[in-house]
Amino acid sequence: MTTSLRRLLRRAAYCTGLILLATVSFLFSPAPRTEAEYCGTYLHLTSFAGFTANCDGFVYMEDARHPAHLLEPREVRQSRPLFILVGAAVGYPCTWLVEALTASGLLPKQVIQRLPPKYQPLLGFYIGYVLLNYAVLLASMLLFAHLYYRLTNGQGSRLLLGALLVFFASNQVTKAFFWTVHQQMFTFLVPLFCAWLLLQSTRPNLERSRRVAAWAFLTGLLALVYGSFVLVLPCLLCGFWQQNRPLRPARLLGNWLGIALLFLLPTLLWIGLLQLLGVTYYNHEAEAYHQLVWLLDAFRLPWPEFVSQVAENGYRFLETLPAVGFFAGLVLGLLGLWRYYKWPIRRQALFAVVGLLALFTSFFAVLGYYQPRLTFILVPLLLCLWVILLPPQPPRWSVWVLMGVALGWHVWQVVSYGPFS
């Protein structure tokens, strides 16, 4: 076994331990007082432990159980077919395992009968989606660890990294969504993947045409998994420009157009397949919440009403910023120290992450649907920015202080009331 593989397995084991410790402790957090405070079903494991099964989860599980539902008109998850197919690929083996354990008596039937009737045949798919939550969160933590060591030139403190990883395992997103069927674990993976694409020390080679085409098409598939992966496209375009600056403007624009078309091709093929089957493509987020499309409606309004609508949505977005306030405070505090002591920082990494923060903030500010859990997508980038602003060799006491802060953060997450969805 190679050294790099052993290192990866050690990190995966540590991250898995953090995930289990954090998410299991959330089961003992205060239960909701009224049904109006969450969307879904609160499942009591004991008299003092439980979790919320989100209302969106039933559709995800039913679609994974019957993927052909994606071909029906106005199917809610039609815009995310690959996530449903992955759910089916994981859910069916879990279902067969549940059936085998039930038939052998190792899993008492009473356990399944305690579930709400509509969830009883879907237990295997529920387990499969929770495993996907774990896999996506683990991948995010491993990717952050990889970026951490690249940003610190391999000299970063393990204790410091361990403290920072606590914030990935313990937060309001994992508290509300780890034990339910949802896609919110991509909140951590999407921005880190974009950072990996842009940072000079990690970005892929985009100088050869075949490699560029492969990256464009394969990352375009991700948009059929989770909508926010569309932000990978501007990162690809920027990365291509950074590595091909000698190109003339006309040729650069031509290449950009080709990358954009290849990135959009998987979605266009999916829409085309639906059209061949006589089904009109349906995007539930755009239809139900007017995500992004509200801008088209707003542009048709008279100027005063347009300004009023934009101001209203801007204010609603600002109301979600407290979700990232703690992490923004960490960055501002370290930025103040840096401006006073003036230690060297990595300029390219700083510009890349600040640019990503601007991109993600702008995108979610104009989304038209605003929730703290969506704005929390800025946190992984704020933590990357914090690492970039670190002094080359921070004093050891500061590492222990951060570990204490991380532990206090987790305790607060456990004992605080909500969120539930």
From TrEMBL:
Membrane-crossing residue ranges in chain numbering: 12-29, 41-61, 82-103, 123-147, 159-179, 214-242, 254-274, 323-341, 348-367, 373-390, 397-415
| Top-level division of the source organism's lineage | Bacteria
Entry annotated with the keyword Membrane: yes
Tell me the keywords, alphabetical order.
Membrane, Transmembrane, Transmembrane helix
Q: What is this protein called?
A: Glycosyltransferase RgtA/B/C/D-like domain-containing protein
> What organism does the record attribute this protein to?
Hymenobacter sublimis
